[in-house]
Amino acid sequence: MEQTAATIQHLVDEQLASIADAEMREALLRFLIAPECQHRNWDYGHNGERYPCWLVARLPATDTAIAYCEHGFGPDFPWGIVALSGEWMGPDGAWHVSLERAFRNTREGARSHAR
């Protein structure tokens, strides 16, 4: 299936609905953006290998974003923390099974969980 901003937004909405912790969900909502496609370099691939990654949240205080990508570590770990100022998908440890897990692994998400 071809990915569009609408299909990615639907995935985000499903992920949000699955977050049981209301404080965590509310904290994440503050950072969500309309899905924005960027082609990013795959760290583990051939020179010039790039994949479409959909930014769904911006966390500018830490120069990071949360992205969705079916390639690279997806479909097993399609939610990643990427650098806003970079063009790379980043290391395997930055990719997670869910939007909630990715957000919990950001400084902003860890803060809201610690409350």
What are its keywords?
115 residues, 28% strand
Name the average pLDDT: 93
- How many discrete structural domains? 1
Distance between the termini: 40 Å
Structural class given helices, strands, pairing? alpha+beta
DSSP strand tally: 5
β content, as a range?
A: 25-35%
Overall body shape: globular
Helices, by number, come to 4
Q: What fraction, in percent, of the residue positions are helical?
A: 25-40%
Rg on CA atoms, Å: 13 Å
How many strands, which pairing sense, and closed or not: the largest β-sheet?
5 strands, antiparallel
Task: Give the uncertain stretches in residue-range form.
Answer: none
> Which series of helices and strands comes N to C?
HHEEEEEHH
Strand order of the largest sheet: 1-2-3-4-5
